[in-house]
Amino acid sequence: MLAIAWLALLLCGCSQDNQGEKLYDPYNAVSAIERLPFYFENPESRAADVSVASETHRLSFFGWGESTDMCFTMQLPDDVASYDRVLLEYRMGAWGNRPGEWDNTTMLFVEDKSGERYEIARAITPYGNSFNSSWSKTFWLDVTEYLPMLQGETNFYLYYGGWDATDKRAHTLTVTLHYYSGKPSRNTVFVHKLYDSSRDGNSGYRGWSYGVAGHDIEDDARLGLRTIEVPESVKSLEMRVAITGHGHDRGTFVERDNYITKNAAEFDENFYKFVINGNLQESVGHIFYSNADNYYQAGTYRYDRANWAPGNPINVQYWSIDAPKEGYGTMTIDLDLEKFESKMSQTNAEGVAQYIVEVFLFGFDK
Fold this sequence. Notes:
Structural class: mainly beta
Shape: globular
Order of helices and strands: HEEEEEEEEEEEHEEEEEEEEEEEE
Mean pLDDT: 93
Helix content: under 10%
Strand content: 35-45%
Radius of gyration: 21 Å
Number of helices: 2
Distance between the termini: 33 Å
């Protein structure tokens, strides 16, 4: 399929017209944005004009579904038009004698004015047995594209996928939003949720099972094709892709010759492809994160994983999508994973391979 795409590109000739204006290339419309998923230190040298902090939340198992997520409210600036950047300070800490024992998934959602929830951060707690009560770790995430949602009285929802909290130890989370004054180079005018396994998961763990017979992850209910109506006000479009792999399934990647599974989907790398308006793209996403430089903790913290590291925010990836010359209009988007055949027969089996998927489109006026 990729060879056909390359042949079509060559037959079409060069990618610029006589005036040097870039033409829309249907087979190369998606490109990776060089943007860090998080920072270990505040990337801003200027002081924030407004900072709003939450209370410190003790993490325990709240439940599986959205209705069980812990809700908290923050009073944010009422008018955000004069800010050009918002940073989320994400502080992990210890409650009681030390943090919880295990590397568990934490998801933070912000609720927009329509009541829709969007994941704004996902992080994995560290193995806590090597830390004491004074331990903490802070990360910084740029969340400027969420700015229209981050104003006035705003609800946030917190999910924690672990049972290791006790009356003596637990993980904690404190979030602070920092607003920086300036003239925005562009404004978010459109947000659209493409995929949300947290809401519609079939594994029981906020994710989509991978390779279970009769429950293809590429079905319409999961990673199938989506049709989007993009407003005329959108001049540039970016995709936020947050995919993490979990489970220890010893199934088979059917397209990989002589490959021995490394416990899918947590320890196996994978790739995702884009199909935009029916055209398979040259750009390919990589579901992989090297933990060679991860900070010291107990457990298997240096094992490479599927887009995450114990004790860190996940490896979110960002992509720009070119518009045809006549504008985005109605478009279709489809994300495809490699074919996998699970050893499991039930989507909620212990250790089933699965992916937690949150993919959003952000449209900007420039």
